[in-house]
Amino acid sequence: MSEINSLKLENQKLRNYILLIFSEIEFSKRIAEIKQNFQDSPDSQRIIVPILDRLSKIKSEKLDLEKELNLNQNDNL
Question: If you ran DSSP here, which 8-state letter would residue 71 be given?
Fold first, then answer.
């Protein structure tokens, strides 16, 4: 693979990583809003569970990219 193609691939992975961060933030905000708006409601959990599942997948994907791109902050110290 040429260096340019390699850089393009790395760039795409970094953009995906950034999108995952934004998605994680947005889903976390939504969960907080739902909890606030549906306090003491049985519907709260029904609504939140699928979002939590997706958030878990996002975190997993993000962690994989962190490892692949050597973005782990603890390793860089």
Answer: -
pTM over 0.85: no
Q: Structural domain boundaries of the chain?
A: 3-68
Measured CA to CA, the distance from residue 32 to residue 66 in angstroms comes to 26
Residue identified by tokens 């950034």 is 18
| Chain mean position to CA 42 | 27
Rounded CA-CA distance 37/16 in Å is 31
> Angle at the Cα of 62 (from 57 to 63), degrees rounded to 5?
100
Q: Kindly report the length of the chain.
A: 77
DSSP H stretches of helix in 1-77? 3-37, 42-68
Q: Assess whether pLDDT exceeds 60 at residue 75.
A: no
